[in-house]
Design brief:
Length: 189
Amino acid sequence: MSNSENSSLEPTSSFSKFSNILVAIAAVCLGTLLFFSTRQSQSQVSLEALAQRSTAYEQAIANPKPTLIEFYADWCTSCQSMAADNLALQQEYGDRLNFVMLNVDNTKWLPEMERFQVDGIPHFVYLDRQNQVLGNAIGVIPKQILASNLDAMIAQSPLPHLESSSRTSPLPAPTIPKQPQPTSHGNPI
């Protein structure tokens, strides 16, 4: 092989290696992007699917089944983290009790938020067949804990896990306009 033939192979070989590295980097980046976009859309779809499958609040309080109400928001990462487990529980128990999801960002549910004293989400309220509160749970609740409480609700037994509290997403404090203080001739009373 002559020197001219040998020198012409070196740039092609280097270019080939460089282009292979670029293709590999692009494939890794694309794969990573696809992985994370799929995960994000799955959690959003799961929360949306859960809300769509849930029983309407008005229907739940009108029928004789026990009810689990979840106060949630689409932006709540704690709610999103529980969505898949809650969907599985809804599929398993949905024929024996009501699953209700109330979005705290919908002002329609303000009376219910006040009634059940919702100050963090997810906030779960357990209602018996007569719509009396059996208990509350706030924050991320493991699937097994929720399932134990659901079994007890169906059996009309005391709930084994009440008033638990864990990782929550705080609700923004409502803005209450200041009331003017009563005065007497410009001086506070």
